[in-house]
Each structure stands twice: as C-alpha cells, then as structure tokens.
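To whoever is on call:

I kicked off a structure prediction for a single chain this morning and the downstream step that reads the tokens threw a length-mismatch warning. I double-checked the sequence; it's 287 residues and nothing unusual in it as far as I can see. Pasting both halves so you can look.
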Amino acid sequence: MHSSLQRIFTALNRVSPWLAGCAAHVLFTTPLKPRRLSAAEKRLAARADAKLATAQDIGFVHDGKRISAYRFGARQQPVSKRVILVHGWMSAARYMLAMVDPLIELGHEVVCIDLPAHGTSSGLRTNLVECASALEALLSKLDGADVVVAHSFGGAVTAFTLSRLSPGALGDNGHIVLLASPNRLSSVTHGFSQALGMGTAGQRAFEKRLCRNIGTTLSEMDGNRMYEAIGYPLSIIHCIDDEEVSIEESRRFLELGDQAALTELSGLGHRRILYHADALKALVSVI
C-alpha cells in the first residue's frame, strides 16, 4: 500500500475510527486503475486483446450495467464441458486468456466475464454482492455451466454466487477450481486494514460497514462453510511464494477432507499462476 495513503489512514484513525472505516470501505469497493505496465506486460496485454477479438461477444445488461462476457469454442458433446473463468479484484477477463487454448484443445467451451467495474464492464465501484449477481446472471444466460475456474477474489464471488443458488447449479458433475483464492473474508479485511495502518477500532468500523453492505457477517463468509454447503469438488492451485494471498488460505480448504485437493506450486507468486506453463498444466490435469 502506498506510504502516503498509510499516513492518511493512520491519522484519520486517530481522529475518528468510524470515519477511517467508512473511507476504507470506499477504497475497498473501488477497483483502482492498474499500475503502469512494463514492456513485457504490454506485449502480453496486446496478445490478450487480439485473443478477445476472436471471441463471441455475449455481453449483457444487468441491473443497469453493461457486463462484458466472451465465449470461445463450442461444446463437443458428450465429453466436453462449459468452463467459466472468473477473474480477481482489479483484474479482467483479458488476464485469464492463457487458459483458453489449452481448454479448447480438450474440446471444452470457455466463457470469460468482466465483473462490474472491471475490464470493459461499466461502473466505477462495485462489491461482492454486485459481482455475484453478475455471475449468477451469466449462469442463467448460459443455462448453466460445468466448471468454474476462479482466481483470487473470483473465488469469493464464486462461493457467494453458488451459495445463493439452488443445489446442482453446475449440474451433477459440477467442479470448482480455485487459483490462489482467500478462504475467509476476515483474512482479507484484516490484511487490508493492516496495509492501511488502521487500528482495531477502525478495522471494526470498516468490517461493520462492509458486512452491512453484503448483508451477512464475517463468520458466515467462511470458504469452508460455504463450499461444504455447495457440495462440489474443489481443486485448488496455489503458489507457496504468493505474497498477496497466503498459501495457508488454500491449505485451510483441506479441512473439507475428500471434497478438496490442493496442488502447490512455487516461483509463480500471485499472478503468474494465470499463464505460466506449470500452472496451465496443473489446471488442465484437474478439469
């Protein structure tokens, strides 16, 4: 977190923890513009945009917002699956596209979504409820899917979405693949508050406002509780050197027993897991 932002929140927390919590909530629900891309990242982005241009545009309007969605390939029954890719916070469908060709080569159909206020979807601010609602609308538009592959915040969106739908939303052989996703919302809010330099009172004010916005409690936003109720098998891929979401978050999913399986990688951090050959090989092996 930028040092000047930390100083502001530390000072604000001293004056009014409640005000600091409100400001933190605004920041937490506002996807910031990505940092300036390196030359290599620009080349990757250009290739991603060229790939997007080959997709079928299946975007739609939901709750007054334009939601961008893209379809690649076509299901080749009976062996193929419809796979939905769900990106993380401050990311976009374009950053998930390295997964498309390996999945299409297996005969699967791949669908990507830009969550509200991300990518080319409309909006400046969003939250977990809005993102889950958009994913639910996409599932309805497609008349279901077989697999959801979700990165980081996308895992929380997937859990929140499926927990609100009727059992069997992904069909009898539904499957969820999590890539470096947090297990508990409380871990995310604690880390965010620490990064801002807020004290306990400011963090509590922030969490209270966030939970009121979501319509639930922190304890209910527990990945193990939610995915156990959802019931689908979980395949989890995470790098041990991830500095944004700790590997311990994924290891906690193993408390679900036979429902969850974890593949641990190294050297890829939080984002290279989206396109590195080792990660793609691990992904293909579990779908």
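Update from on-call: the warning came from a stale cache, not from the record. Cleared it. Sanity check on the structure: The longest helix spans residues 128-142.
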